[in-house]
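Researcher: Here's the sequence for the chain we discussed earlier.
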Amino acid sequence: MVPGGAVVGGSVGAVVPGVPVVLLVLDELDDVVVEPCGLRFFVVVVVPAPDFDDPPLSHALAVTTSAAHASSVQTRRNPGRATDIPPAWSTATRGSGHSRIDPGYCAAIDADLALALELADAADALTVSRFRANDLQVSRKPDTTHVTEADHAAEELIRSGLQRARPDDAILGEEFGTEGTGHRRWIVDPIDGTANYVRGVPIWATLIALEEDGELRVGVVSAPALHTRWYAARGEGAWSNDRRLAVSGVADLADAQLCYSDIASWTNWRTSAQPMIDLLHHVWRARGVGDFLQHMLVAEGAADAAVEPIVNLWDLAPLLVIVEEAGGRFTNLEGERTADGGSAVSSNGLLHDDVLEALAAAGPASGDDEDAA
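Model: Thanks. This is the structure I predict for it:
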């Protein structure tokens, strides 16, 4: 056992000081250590000692060390609690197409994209370890949206990795705001779709983007519960696992599949929901998907357009890069090419102006700068 808050090969997150804990390194260390592109991560589950009833907390250690060193960390397993811990990430995501990054692949792609993929691997290990956990700690933000211990821990993990690998870059995260200044800024949403995460719905993802001189250049969307990762860098195309993405060729709204979040958000955050309702009746097929997934379906060519009336920068930054690199178009509802416009429209490009025109009468309501999702 180690005292709460002790440093073991790196920094443990917000373990309660003075509370004895047991560190359980997840099974199959070779699958957990991520070391293809410079940083090393390993994930532990931090649980109170057997005599304490406090709920377990998950944390990841971001360390610049070796696999051998990681395996030498003093750990103990708690047989009485181990069965309550969700499956190790190596088991939960095996066969997903992204549980490990091939070092040769990292050497061949944009270095910042390689770093983002590596950080996503580490975040996936952490978030999967707490998904559907009976003792997941959930609270509400001032805007009433959910936040969990996993949101906080995943963002802390990503920030730690970025600070080590790119110390001169700024970071904007949903949970902890802005840190640093400069012409390069990383934009992070540790769990997009937290409401789904809390309810056990597997549609959630870690979003990581890099903005350089005001232009979004790298985007990663990692959804381990769906066994899928989407990613792109400028000039290198967009990919889902090992498959290159391309938007559809549907050119008529009457033939289009449209994705959206829900009708209530249009009522709450736009001047009228009626234009959206009319559009739903005009297209061939409409499905309420929401969050990152609807825009990734556009990038894949599975959907032809997706719309959101209220959303934040960290929800959209990587999506813009991926959709555009897949050949699509990404704007806000006012037609501005931006991920920071408070709303979002992604499309195959052919339908974009038609969608904007159809929704033009649904103007922004006053004070619609907070994401209701």
